[in-house]
Write a structure and sequence with these properties.
mainly beta; Sortase, Chain: A; 8-stranded mixed barrel; 3-stranded antiparallel β-sheet; 2 helices; 5% helix; globular; signal
C-alpha cells in the first residue's frame, strides 16, 4: 500500500488488504447503513488541509512519519471486540522505507497500530488501528466483520503498560476511497478516540482492491 506524503497528511494506496486480497469473498458489499457520522465528525477539531486529498483513489490517510513529541507513548498491543469475536494482537507499524508501503502485518489475524499517531495514553487525537478484511491465501482477516459493529458495542484495547482500556462505538461509516475525509481520521487533535479501518464495498478483481473503506470510531467508555 503505497504512501504519498502531501504536506501534513498522506494517503495509502489501494486499501488495507488490497495487495493480497482476491475474490475469495465478497465482503462488505452490502453493509448496514452508516451510523453516527455527525458524532464522529464532532470529535475532530482539525482544520481540513487542502492538499490532503484522496482524489487518486488512495484510501487510508496518515500523518507524516514523525513520532509525536511529549510524554512516553503507550502502544496498544491487544484488541478484543466481543460483538464480532475478535481477539487480535496489535503490531506497531509505520512505512516501509524501501517500498514506501504502509506495513500492515502480513498475517491477516493481526492488526496494525499506526505508531506515528497517538498512543493509548493520549488525551487528544485519533488512535488508528488498521487490519485486513481478508486474503486470497489466508482467508478471513481480523477485521472481516468490522462492518457489523454498531453504536454502543464495546471493545477493549490493552496497552504495553498492561492496562486494559474500554471503548464504546459511536460511529460506523463507509466511504468510497476517493471521498474519505483524510483530516478527520488521522488527526492528532480533537477528543481522544479509537479509529478502526479496513476495506469494504464491491471488490474490483482487475484492480485487486475493494472500492471502499469501513471506518469505526470509538470513544473511551
Amino acid at each position: 500500500m503505497t504512501v504519498r506524503n502531501r504536506g501534513a497528511l498522506a494517503a495509502l494506496a489501494a486499501g488495507v488488504a488490497a495487495l493480497t486480497v482476491a475474490t475469495l469473498v465478497a465482503c462488505g458489499s452490502q453493509p448496514a447503513e452508516d451510523v453516527g457520522g455527525d458524532e464522529a465528525a464532532n470529535l475532530a477539531t482539525a482544520t481540513p488541509t487542502p492538499s490532503a486529498s484522496a482524489a487518486d483513489g488512495q484510501s487510508v490517510p496518515v500523518t507524516v512519519g514523525e513520532l509525536p513529541a511529549g510524554a512516553e507513548i503507550v502502544p496498544p498491543v491487544r484488541l478484543v471486540i466481543p460483538a464480532i469475536d475478535v481477539t487480535a494482537t496489535i503490531n506497531a507499524v509505520g512505512i516501509n522505507k524501501r517500498t514506501n508501503d504502509f506495513e500492515v502485518p502480513p498475517s491477516v489475524d493481526k492488526i496494525g497500530w499506526y505508531r506515528y499517531g497517538p498512543g493509548l495514553e493520549a488525551d487528544a487525537g485519533s488512535i488508528v488501528i488498521a487490519g485486513h478484511v481478508d486474503s486470497a491465501q489466508q482467508g478471513k482477516g481480523a477485521f472481516f466483520r468490522l462492518r457489523e459493529l454498531d453504536q454502543g458495542d464495546t471493545l477493549t484495547a490493552t496497552g504495553s503498560d498492561g492496562e486494559a482500556r474500554k471503548y464504546r462505538v459511536v460511529a460506523r461509516e463507509e466511504y468510497d476511497k476517493t471521498k474519505i475525509p483524510l483530516e478527520r481520521y488521522f488527526a492528532r487533535d480533537g477528543k481522544p478516540r479509537l479509529t478502526l479501518i479496513t476495506c469494504g464495498g464491491p471488490f474490483d478483481a482487475k484492480a485487486r482492491k475493494y472500492r471502499d473503506n469501513i471506518v469505526v470510531t470509538a470513544v473511551p467508555a
